[in-house]
Amino acid sequence: MNLAGRLDRLRGRPAEVTPDTLARQLQRLDGRRTAKTASPPRIDTLARALQLQVCGDALLLCERQYTLPRAQHPLDLTMLPEVHGLADPDWVYLDTETTGLSGGVGNLAFMVGVARYTDAQTLAVRQYLLGSFAAEAAMLRDLVSWVGRDAVLVSYNGKCFDLPLLGARCAMQRVEDGLGGLRHLDLMYTVRRAYRRHWPDCRLQTAEKRLLDLHRAGDLPGSEAPAAWQAWLRRGETVPLGDVLQHNFQDVASLALLHHGLLRDYAGHGEAPVDHAAIGRAWQQAGHEPLACKVLEAAGVHLDETGVLQLAALYRRRGEWARAEALWLQLHAGGSALAACELSKYYEHRRRDYRRAMDFAAVCETSERRARCGRLQEKIGSNLSLPLVPG
Amino acid sequence: MPALPLPADPERELPDPVDRLTRRLKAKYAGRICAELTLPARLAQTGPLPAGLDERLLRALQARGIHELYAHQAEAWRLAGEGRHFVVVTPTASGKTLCYNLPVLQAVCNGQGKALYLFPTKALAQDQVAELLELNRAGELGVRAYTFDGDTPGDARKAVRTRGDIVVSNPDMLHQAILPHHTKWAQFFENLQYVVIDEMHSYRGVFGAHVANLIRRLRRILAFYGAAPQFVFCSATIANPVELATRLLGEDVAAVTRSGAPQGERRLLLWNPPVINPDLGLRASARSQTNRIARLATRLGLKSIVFARSRLMVEVLTKYLKDVFDRDPRRPPRVFAYRGGYLPTQRRETERRLRDGSIDCVISTSALELGVDIGSLDVCVLNGYPGSIAATWQRLGRAGRRNRTSLGVLVAGSEPLDQYIVRNPEFFLGASPEHARIDPDQLLVLLDHVRCAAFELPFHADERFGSRHPLGQFLQYLGDEGVVHREGDTWHWATDAYPANAVSLRSVAEGNFLVVDQDHDSRQVIAEVDFSSAPETLYPGAIYMLQAAPYQVESLDWDGRKAYVRPTRADYYTDAIVYTRLKILERFAEQATAQASVAHGEVHLVRRFAGYKKIRYYTHENIGYGNINLPDQEMHTTSAWWEIRPGELERALPSRQMALDGFLGAAYAMHHVAALQMMSETSDLGRAVGDGDGRWFATQGANGRGQMRDVSGEEIAPDYQGAFRPAVFLYDNHPGGIGLSEPLYARQAEVVRGALELVERCDCRYGCPSCVGPVLASDEERGYSPRALAATVLGLFAAGVDRLRRSA
């Protein structure tokens, strides 16, 4: 019995004895000659079917333009906390389609879409497609050189998925990884921060629907991309790859649209339900307090306790004590213990009104209250003879 | 051998409690002690620290009180310097680790390279890093040694990869996390100078075949990064360390085998439980004797370790000892159980308590046989022969690590091997340890690793992968499945999968079962059970024991690999009844004589879990049965089998009932002798009696007699069946086989002859657990002796191969 038959039996599979296996067995004996005639001529078929340029042995290329639908160019694309302050960045949008979704060096990107602005409203989109494994090194080299050394990459989940994968493939193909060191805006983090608490999930398609009102029709789900490439490799099917090409084009265009679409909520102009407190915090961490303030103020009644406290803290830092106190009092009226603590500190250190400070301290969290109340008790005792200075 | 004088030791002047225990045991139980052996203390053989040692390293050694090297350490240093691969084989606690730590640290200090250490388990890896860090601190070497295992947090992994000089890991991690992501390790691999593989003896059987293939994969990746490091293996004593290392590596390996380390005096008692029913040859259980010895040792204030052969026995012994020593819940417990299946945190905690001396008695399976540092123990009791000479010495070595007198007691069980050994102590004491076998080219294991390797790097059509099989056929096979795709001369990974996840190194079948305690609101995982033992231990109704606390299995989610249990207060434990039938698929080879024939080949095996017995604690009476509703477990594997020609059979054994009894008895004896010959655990081999077509099989019924059962497990009358061709099968108990049946066939004459001797020379009258298996009191009325029948069957098996001996 041949090896294949034994393996089938050991693994509990019925061994097929059909004319087909016999033919393959013969092929096996003379494997090298038959295999050589197997694939190369099909590249042209694929190129024709999808209207792609052939570039090198089996690397296919698609260059198209994409025009952003509305006049969005007055917007400053650096107005996101991650990229705030960059001078005239060379944005490059990037998305890959891979042979597997589970990670590890065995998966490769059989399609890469990249795009950069040619003017404020137009994107040049460049898509690579591998017609065979042999074309991968050429693709990676061309990709690295097209992206260049000064680009700022924009992706969706590229930090955890696309970039490590491309880095691994560069190492496997011994191509210098020029992408790993670039600045990188991963919009998934930007989206998650703002909408995690309001959306059921933060997939790219969800963001498209909710922020851009974009509903893809007849789009191939990204998870089916691996099967499309396998269908080409094994059976020479070109139609599924055409769908992937369209899907990838749409993904890259969506990145640009999303980039624009996020600016409104991050500037405090949006109407969508959004986590203002998180955005405010991000702006504050990025060193842009006025914007943090603006976003939080714009939220108005939608701001939750954390958000109001944050805004009050910003006022306090700027010395706008009255506005801070007003916010704390408003929260305190709603029963916020944290606000009571802030008020207690404010009355103790700023207003030196220890009795009021004491009243607020009584509502503080337990451990803090004990320390604070003890200290205030002492201060009240020692200052009884002094006139209390109203602030 | 003359005893060497012991080095002066102030403690020797005091009455030695180990001495007291030994004296008391000998005075009280002289009749049970079959043999006594004293291994005299051994003096150290040393040499100077090697010239050329890095100065910081020299300081580190001196700070740790090391001013010279043992002979084996010096030899290892020399071989490392010559750039050779080598294997170090010396006893427990002989300073083996310095054999590799020294050259590795030298290389790291000189900035010449990095090292990868592999230990079979996480626990051993963590021990090792602790030791390295101590040397590191002592000499301010600045060497960065990290463990990399399932417990390494995600954010620390990058630092380990990029900054680690020595990375300490285990085969499973290399297989699932490192090699499939090797580009992240590029920098580490490029500079790799040493690969250290410790506890090599544990890489045998299936695990060994997997590890050999894992090393093939590792070297393939290393070649991609232009690295060709030296491999250093360390092993406990086995007969063929060089052969095993060579098979694991696929290249020649030098050996360091003479230990220069000193050793304290060791005493060993071989203990046979007293006969309690001379007619049946029944002896008191090993369990009762072990319990007694461990109790006495603990009362004398000695620290002891008890090794049991099954997880169940660990739990039973723990319960009995806890009933004595841990009755008061307000006091910290003194008795602990340790075995596979406990969660890592529980095990670490027990190890810590062992090291700080707060445990008086630990009961363990082979899990503690390896070099986990458990400090110094005085007494080691083996409840039953561990199955191999190597494992016996390895376990006995856990007591008396630090130049102190120690006592080991081997308590024989009623199994034939145990009895053989205590009755022939010279065999045991004089025998060389067994051979460790692996078959790196086991088809299913090889297929798994070719798949994983294809994921890691495309295969060139001419690549060999160290295998004797032409790889082209494997790749073609995987290509037909759509796993790889051929392009020119190269095979590329071509599917959406992460193959390492589907391959477990510890078994051929995959998927561990989780044991979930659903008594708490938050369901808690309390243990893991490997796939092959799950059907025998986790059927609904089974009592599952954990630290001697009984849990009852309420439901089993077979596909989800989970068993849901609840704590219970049963006064019994459960034991599964398993029926096995076999069908011969292909004969690889056959020898025949006028009387009998023996063959080996591929078989299809079906195991049916017919039910279970409930057995009461202490009295061990059978108090009921339950049903098991589990799918039959099927397996393709290899087997050797023995048959008698039909005419001869009828002439020698007039009734079919007698033939069944004879075959069952012969199978029992042959199974045990074969396990001894093959250095496998008895559980690596399975035995069955039936015909070769899977139409019927034989079991021993409740009345002690052989029964014939049909495909559905129903009992059938032997005399009303058609053709009757019983066979004894000894099969490889792993899917696909791990290469046991071919050598078994090659040595079949020794197996049959050994079994015949065992049966003929036994002291019992009709048969007993030590020769043909338990025989009931009523067997006297059978009118014939099962033992004589087994001898007849074995005689026929042996007739052709050994005609001279029969005629003598």
Q: What can you tell me about this protein's structure?
A:
The complex is a heterodimer of chains A (391) and B (808). Chain A has 391 residues and is an alpha/beta fold. Chain A folds into three domains: 3-36, no CATH class; 42-267, Ribonuclease H-like superfamily/Ribonuclease H (Nucleotidyltransferase, domain 5, 2-Layer Sandwich), CATH 3.30.420.10; 289-383, Alpha Horseshoe (Serine Threonine Protein Phosphatase 5, Tetratricopeptide repeat). Chain A has 17 helices and seven strands. Chain A has a seven-stranded mixed sheet, with helices on both faces. In chain A, helix 8 crosses helix 10. The longest helix of chain A has 29 residues, at 239-267. In chain B, 35% of the residues lie in helices and 25% in strands. In chain B, strands 27, 28, 29, 30, 31, 32, 33, 34 and 35 form a nine-stranded antiparallel sheet that branches. In chain B, helix 3 packs across helix 6. The longest helix of chain B is centred in the last third of the chain and has 23 residues, at 656-678. Mean pLDDT of chain B is 84; it is low at 1-13 and 803-808. The A-B interface holds A 1-4, 6-7, 9-12, 24, 28, 31-32, 35-36, 38-39, 99-107, 132-134, 167-168, 171-172, 226-227, 230, 233-234 and B 180-184, 186, 443-444, 447, 454-458, 461, 469, 472-474, 476-477, 480, 482, 485-490, 492-501, 585-586, 602, 634, 636, 735-736.
- Average pLDDT for all residues of chain B: 84
What is Rg of chain B? 27 Å
Largest sheet of chain B: 9 strands, antiparallel
Helix content of chain B: 25-40%
Distance between the termini of chain A: 98 Å
Summarize the structure.
The complex is a heterodimer of chains A (391) and B (808). Helix content of chain A is 53%, strand content 13%.
